Amino acid sequence: MATPDFILDLRSKIGTDLLWLPGVTAVVLRPAPEGGSREVLLVRRADNGAWTPVTGIIDPGEEPAQAGARECLEEADVVAVAEALVWVHALPP
Question: Is 24 among the domain residues?
Fold first, then answer.
């Protein structure tokens, strides 16, 4: 995905200074077709080709649940509904 316009605008003002960005990872599960183990939705990253859960940057004013659902629709064309917030974590700079 392209860099959101609001980040490009920020970067034009602050350059390469440290910028804290809230993000979201959506772990989307569904029952297996034959009733076995659940399946997890993975998408392929554009930058390195690795398989990963759906992730993205939360837009200004957007709730994390909304961002997760939006990212699922944008990246995988999957309609998802948030059921739980599982983890909150901050990465080091």
Answer: no
| Domain annotation covers residue 87 | no
- Rounded to 5°, the CA angle 56-32-36 comes to 130
Question: Following DSSP, what letter does each residue of 39-68 receive, concatenated?
Answer: EE--EE-TTT--EE-EEEEPPTT--HHHHH
pLDDT at 78 over 90: yes
Closest by alpha carbon to 59, among 74, 45, 44, 49?
74
Nearest to 59 by CA among 12, 4, 16, 3: 4
Task: Specify if 23 maps to a domain.
Answer: no
CB count within 10 Å of CB 9 equals: 10
**pLDDT given at position 33:** 79
Tell me, yes or no, whether 20 lies in a domain: no
Against a cut of 0.70, is the pTM above it?
Answer: yes
Q: Domain count for the chain, please give it.
A: 1
